[in-house]
Amino acid sequence: MQGLYSRLTPHFQRWDPAFAQRGTDSGHAVYVQGHDRGGNYHLDHAGVPTDVFWNDPLGRSPAGTPATQRYRGEWMPIAVLHAFIRGFDTSDNALSYVATVRQGEHA
Questions:
Q1: What confidence tens digit (pLDDT) does each residue in 32-83 have?
Q2: Taking a C-beta distance cutoff of 8 angstroms, is the pair 60, 15 a contact?
Q3: Which residues face 101 on adjacent strands?
């Protein structure tokens, strides 16, 4: 998925704050999926996804970090993902690129 790193919240910009300061020149590509590595989903009471699992290629764990504690992605609120994507396309069509899980698929 593509978007602008500058449109992310500070938590998700933590891997490269200087890059985030580049504004419209902060185009970035990441991997996003509806579930984490364990197949877990974050859904609301109606079964609609509230978060996506975000894996930023800029995410790096410090040298010597034990394998079980290394950065392997994290949950991101869908609203933050929408802001990231809308950095490239401000129309409502931009949101069509977000893959979501249909109710019942996760069962």
A1: 888 777 778 888 888 888 888 999 999 988 899 999 999 889 999 988 998 9
A2: yes
A3: none
Q: Is 86 helix (H, G, I), strand (E, B) or coil?
A: helix
Query: Hey, which residues does 3 pair with through a beta bridge?
Result: 28
For residue 31, the Cα-to-chain-centroid distance in whole angstroms is 7
Residue 9's CB is within 10 A of a number of other CB atoms, namely 14
Q: Identify whether the C-beta of residue 30 lies closer than 8 Å to the C-beta of residue 55.
A: yes
C-alpha span between 91 and 71 (Å, rounded): 32
| Nearby residues of 4 by Cβ (< 8 Å), 6 or more positions away | 23, 24, 26, 27, 28, 84, 87, 88
What distance in Å separates the CA atoms of residue 23 and residue 61, rounded to the nearest whole number? 25
Q: For the range 69-72, what are the long-range contacts, defined as Cβ-Cβ under 8 Å and sequence gap of 24 or more?
A: 72/37
Here the tokens at position 84 are 């990231």
Instruction: Judge whether 84 and 6 are in contact, CB under 8 Å.
Output: no
